[in-house]
Amino acid sequence: MNKNPVLQKKFDEGYAKGFMKGSEYGRDQAVNFFADKFEGLESVPGIGSKTLRKIRNHLGEEYFRR
To answer: How many whole angstroms separate alpha carbon 20 and alpha carbon 28?
Structure first.
């Protein structure tokens, strides 16, 4: 705890900004990880266009690169 309210306010603002940036980075990393894993899904035997469409609808389009 800081005794100076101005410094405490600036600290809190910086902490919140850093937390937002960190969570945004983590989310981007997760999306890229799953996009890499799902990239070759079309070539797997037994997974046709219907199944792939169901997977995309369930997980979300952001995990699949075009």
So the answer is: 12
